[in-house]
Amino acid sequence: MKLKNVFLDTSIYIKNNFEFGGSKFNKLNDLISAGRIQLYSTTIIDNEVISNIDKTIEETRQFVNSVIKEAYVLKNTSPFKSIFAERKPVNIALNEVKNQYDEFKQSTNIENIPINNVDVDDIFKRYFEELPPFSSKKKEEIPDAFTLSALKQWFQKKEDACYILSTDSDMKNYCEENKELIYLDSLDSLFNLIASEDARYEFVIQVFNEHEDEILENIKDDLFDSFILDDIDGEVNEVDVSDLSFVNKPLITEIGDNYAKLSLVLQFDYTAYCSVLDVESSPYDSETKGFLWKDYKDEIYHGSEEIPVEIFIDNIKLGEEAPENADITAKFNNDEMIFISSPYDYY
After folding, report:
1. Cα dihedral sign for 68, 73, 74, 75?
2. C-alpha 77: how far from chain center
């Protein structure tokens, strides 16, 4: 199996929430250690990733500080104890994520491609003519142009190709013009590409297809406890979920001796029956800046969602026509709650 050259755009790090110790980056590291992938980058991407880590964590500072100030009663409760234990938790978190990024770069042995020999004339010609990767004359797209030009020149000289992982449509358009650069939109797409070289790939797809209706029904049953009100004082009492379907074909991210992992996107409609604060019938005390008591009323909210789903198929063996004993479980929305926002302004 041929070694795959891979480049990660900053957007991939952002999409995966800089979780360098998470399952996707760990899987990438495993493939690199197994000699399946060589990872490439540029100093531009390195600086962009660090800048975005700074920006993303800094955006949480005001919220975290407000929790420490306004929710002091939670200081000695198990879910919040660690936040109050540190004097400057955001600073500590920032340093941890940066250290994790440094460890990721070291463990994956990323090779930096030099950008000092790029064709500057071609870059600015594309800039003024609004050609990919420029969708318009935006200065912030110039770093991408330098990176892509460097990658193109590098792999032209090597007479090889590189997979460009990005969520940026302008990068996709640029790759379509250059045979050396092959666009993929996610780490899961890369993992699926590698898994497709496994003789068991089609068998796993067959198992999924045979159990798809069962998988959707099980997810539907499990979805109820995942809904929570976002910006409303109240509770979700009941949820009806309908029209469940997978948006994409399954991406197989891993195949083991008797198991497989798949990644999909699920779409569905919901009707949520909720009890929410009735502001009009709840007397407000301006001195204490709080309600004397709270009355609640019934509200019904309708919505549609698209969420990521991971499917785990266990207890399967290659060659079984109908693995009736296959154990199938699903993790949806990255084990996070699904928030319901009110269409009304209650406060």
Report:
1. positive
2. 30
- pLDDT 10s digits, 31-40: 999 999 999 9
Q: Which residues of 21-55 are buried (b: 16+ CB within 10 A; e: fewer)?
A: eeebbebbbebbeeebbbbbbbebbeebbeeebee
pLDDT at residue 263 in the model: 97
Map out the domains of the chain with their CATH numbers.
4-192 (3.40.50.1010), 200-340 (3.10.450)
**Which residue carries 């693995």 as its tokens?**
323
Q: Are 205 and 250 in contact (CB under 8 A)?
A: yes
Sign of CA dihedral 47, 51, 56, 57: positive
The string of pLDDT tens digits covering residues 166-192 is 999 999 999 999 999 999 999 999 999
To the nearest 10°, report the CA torsion of 158, 165, 96, 102.
0
Dihedral sign, CA of 61, 63, 69, 75?
negative
